[in-house]
C-alpha cells in the first residue's frame, strides 16, 4: 500500500518525516554500533569488539541463545549473544537494553572484500533523559571494560622478525608470531634471592610508573642487559619477565635485518606492553670495539687493492653478513626519537661477553640495569633443589655448598644433575650425581689450570729465548763491526805504512 500511495521519488521524504514525528514522541534513544566501519577494510570495529566482549561476560547468564566464535589465531573462544537476542544491563540504576541484529545489504559494494555477508551490529537503547550519562560515562565504561577483558583473556605472543627480503607482496608482515607458552617464572628461576627481589621490584615499579615517566619527560621504557656465561639462565629470565608482566616478546634477529631503515620499520610495528629482545648482541653485528680495530688494519690493506676486486669483495661480504645495521642505527633504535612510539616496553640484550660491547651501547639510559647471571652459588642451588626435588634441606647440602664455593658450575649443569632420569632415582641419588659432577668439574678446572700454566711458562720461555737470541745477534753484529773497523784501521795504517 505504501508503495502504491507514494511513488519512488517521494518515499524518502515521507520516511524522513515519519522518523521525525516518531522521534518526537518516542521516549528512547538508540545508538548503533556496526561490526565494520564504513571505510574500514577487513578491520572489525574496535568498539564492536569491546562491546562483544563486555556483553559476553555480562550476558552469558541472561541471553538464552549464544554464539561461539573463535577469535583469530585460535586465541580463545568467545561466547556472545546470538543475533536478534536482547539483554538488559544496569548502570547506576539506569536500565540499558542491548540487542544484536544484522542487516542484509541491499546492494553489494563495488569493491567489498566481505562479499555478501550480512552486516551485524549492536544496538543500545535507553531512556532519553539518560542520554548524557549513557554517552559520556556508560559507553566509556563498556569500552574500557571490554578492552580489559580482552587483555585478561588473550594469549601472549612470541614474535620473530621476517627476513627483510620477504617483506613485499600481499601479506606484508614484518613480524611472525606464535603463542608464547614458556613456563619459566620468577619462582622457578634460580638466583640469589636478594638479587631476584631487587629485579622483581624494579619491574613492578616500572609497570606502575606511567605518570612518573611522563613527569620527568622520558619515554616509558627500560633497558636491561643480562650477561654471563652460557647456561646461567639469561633466556629463562626473559621468559620469567614476560610471564610476570604479561607482555608479548619480540625476539629480534639482527642479522636478518637489512639496514637501519628496516630496523626502524620493525620498531614501529611492535606493540606496547612488550619486551624487545636481542640475544647474544656481541655476535649479532660488528659492534664490538676490537673488531673496529681490525677493520682499520683491513682498510689499510684494502687501499692497496684495485677497485674491481674491492667491489667484488664488498658484495661477497654483504651476502655473507646480510646486514648493514650499524651501531648508530641500533643506538637510535633504542633511544632515538622513534623509540618513543608505543610505550611500556622493555628492551633486553643478552651477551656472554659484556667486556666486548661498545660502552655507548650499554651506558645507563640505554641499558638502565645491568644484571649479571653467574655460576651456581649455594643460594641458587637451594632454589633448584626445591624446584627439582622438593627438598628444603638435606644432609648432603653442606658438602655441596662447600664444593660450590670452590668450583664453577652453571645452573644448567646443576639442573641437569638434579633431574631424576627414572623412577628409581630419588633425591639421594640425584644429589650424589651432582657431587660427582662437581668433583669432575673441579678436576677439569685443575687440569685446565695446569695446562694454562704450562702454556704460559712456554710462552714466557719463548719470549725470553727470542730476547736472548736478539741480544746474541746484536753482540755478534757488534763484534763483526768491531772486527771490520779494526781491519779498516789496520788497512789505513797499512796504507800509511806502505
Ligand atoms: N638460573 C636458573 N634457574 C633455573 N634454571 C636455569 C637457570 N639457569 C639455567 N637454567 C636451566 O638451564 C637451561 C638453559 O638456561 P638458559 O637458556 O636460560 O641459559 P642462557 O643463559 O640463556 O644461555 P645462553 O647464553 O647459552 O643463551 C634452562 O632451560 C633452565 O632449565
Ligand atoms: Mg639464551
Quick rundown:
This protein is α/β, with parallel strands linked by helices. The chain has helices at residues 2-5, 8-25, 46-59, 131-153, 193-208, 210-216, 234-245, 260-268, 281-284, 289-303, 307-321, 327-335, 359-362, 378-389, 397-406, 411-418, 427-497, and strands spanning 28-34, 66-70, 77-81, 86-91, 94-103, 119-127, 157-161, 175-179, 221-227, 248-251, 274-278, 345-351, 369-372.
Sketch the major β-sheet.
7 strands, mixed
**How does the overall form come out from the CA principal axes?**
elongated
How many domains make up the coordinates?
3
Cα distance, first to last residue?
A: 153 Å
Helical proportion, percent range:
40-55%
Q: In percent terms, what proportion of residues is strand?
A: 15-25%
Number of strands: 13
Widest sheet: strand order? 8-7-10-11-12-9-13
Q: Any guess at the CATH architecture of the largest domain?
A: 3-Layer(aba) Sandwich
Which structural class matches the secondary elements?
A: alpha/beta
Q: What is the C-level CATH assignment of the largest domain?
A: Alpha Beta
Number of H- or I-type helical stretches: 17
- Note the run of SSEs as H and E: HHEHEEEEEHEEHHEHEHEHHHHEHEHHHH
CATH topology heading of the largest domain = Rossmann fold
Low-confidence segments, ≥5 residues, pLDDT <50? Answer: 288-297
Bound ligands: adenosine-5'-triphosphate, magnesium ion
Computed over alpha carbons, the radius of gyration is 36 Å
Q: State the CATH superfamily name of the largest domain.
A: P-loop containing nucleotide triphosphate hydrolases
Average pLDDT number:
81
